[in-house]
Amino acid sequence: MSAARRAWLVAALLAAFPRAAFACAVCFDPRAENRAAFLATTAFLSFLPLGLVAGLVSWLRHRAGALEKDEERSGASGEG
């Protein structure tokens, strides 16, 4: 059986039996406190990489601006 055929078979089985496809028992806990904690953690872990990338871009822009100012200062003082 080819890999593509096997993938389609697994997808069809998971679609036919969705309860077997749950990631873990904690994800679908009936208690509201546990569900809220899981959703809050999911949101945090989803936005954390975005914040890190935004912080890195901000720092790089700031650093590039500072280096450009330093270069302008040294170029202006070296001309005279």
Q: How are helices and strands ordered from N to C? A: HH
**Total helical elements:** 2
The residue ranges in which pLDDT falls below 50 over 5 or more consecutive positions are none
Helical coverage, percent range: over 70%
Structural class computed from helices and strand pairing? mainly alpha
Distance between the termini: 78 Å
The average pLDDT score comes to: 83
**Overall 3D shape:** elongated
Total strand segments: 0
Binned strand content: under 5%
In this structure, how is the largest beta sheet organized? none
Radius of gyration: 26 Å
Outline the structure in words.
This protein has helices spanning about 5-15, 30-80. It is about 80% helix and about 0% strand. With about 80 residues, it is mostly helical. It is elongated, with a radius of gyration of 26 Å. It is built from two helices and no strands. The protein has a domain at about 25-80.
SSE topology sketch:
Elements: H1 3-16, H2 32-79
Keywords:
0% strand; mainly alpha; elongated; 80 residues
Describe what is shown at a glance.
The chain has helices at residues 3-16, 32-79. By secondary structure, it is mainly alpha-helical. It has a domain at 25-79.
